[in-house]
DNA sequence: CGCTTTTGACCGGCGC
DNA sequence: GCGCCGGTCAAAAGCG
């Protein structure tokens, strides 16, 4: 067999006559049989080609459905984090062949001071500086596996001891949207006078560029923010005590 | 000159 | 135990 491998590369197969050039002929029956085998071989090739194509299309469809499903879950989780305080449950499935083996539920650790915000930005704006009124110092940047856009890491530098961090990354789905993840709670007064303010983990406004969210979403968003601000201030003992004592 | 940004190195958690 | 990956550090570079 050594040296015959190249015969199988292009126009031959294990059933191809060309692969066995020295095979003796035993008459018309053998010739007819060989023609039948060649025909069958051709059909099998076509079937294989069609099957491979269909498999590829099916694979693409499965990936697309999984992508949409993950996107829906992500948005639901964001909605839950913004409007609810109950833990968020996420269903995750493994990718193994046995679909019944390890479908599992796991609870996401609920972090009360982690908030995720989507910010509409100008496409031409290359930086990841979401202006929100606080001072941030960039301390790192990474390219993550699930997103070609780099993720920037910021620490709040408004106060030396403030533990708040934020991560900023363009959305993999829409590059005009920046995903900002605030982590922690500010231990200092907010910078009053700033047009865009974030208090604790609660964003007050998220516009970072001339392009603004739509009026409708901005209105409901502002209403939510006002409610959150009132709630935040009510929970702050120093604020309530100062309010009680007066100026 | 001091502050901020950049960027490669390093570390720890997690899955296999 | 090993490799991958996200997060952080810290030295160098940039900038006002």
Q: What do you see in this structure?
A:
The model is unreliable at 1-25, 78-110 and 193-227 (pLDDT under 50). With 247 residues, the protein is an alpha+beta fold. Helix content is 35%, strand content 19%. The strands form 3 sheets. It has a 5-stranded antiparallel β-sheet with strand order 3-7-6-5-4. Strands 1-2 form a two-stranded antiparallel sheet. The protein binds a DNA duplex (16 and 16 nucleotides) through residues 137-142, 144-145, 151, 153, 157, 167.
DSSP E strands, number: 9
The number of helical segments is: 3
Shape: rod-shaped
Strand/helix succession: HEEEEEEEEEHH
What keywords describe this structure?
two-stranded antiparallel sheet, DNA-binding, single chain, rod-shaped, five-stranded antiparallel beta sheet, 247 residues, disordered N terminus, 3 helices, alpha+beta, WRKY_dom_sf, WRKY_dom, WRKY domain, transcription
Write a brief caption for the model.
This is WRKY domain. The chain is an alpha+beta fold and 247 residues long.
What secondary-structure arrangement, pairings included, does this model have?
Elements: H1 28-83, E1 89-92, E2 104-107, E3 114-120, E4 136-143, E5 150-156, E6 165-170, E7 177-183, E8 198-199, E9 202-203, H2 215-235, H3 237-245
Antiparallel strand pairs: 1-2, 3-7, 4-5, 5-6, 6-7, 8-9
The protein binds a DNA duplex (16 and 16 nucleotides) through strand 4.
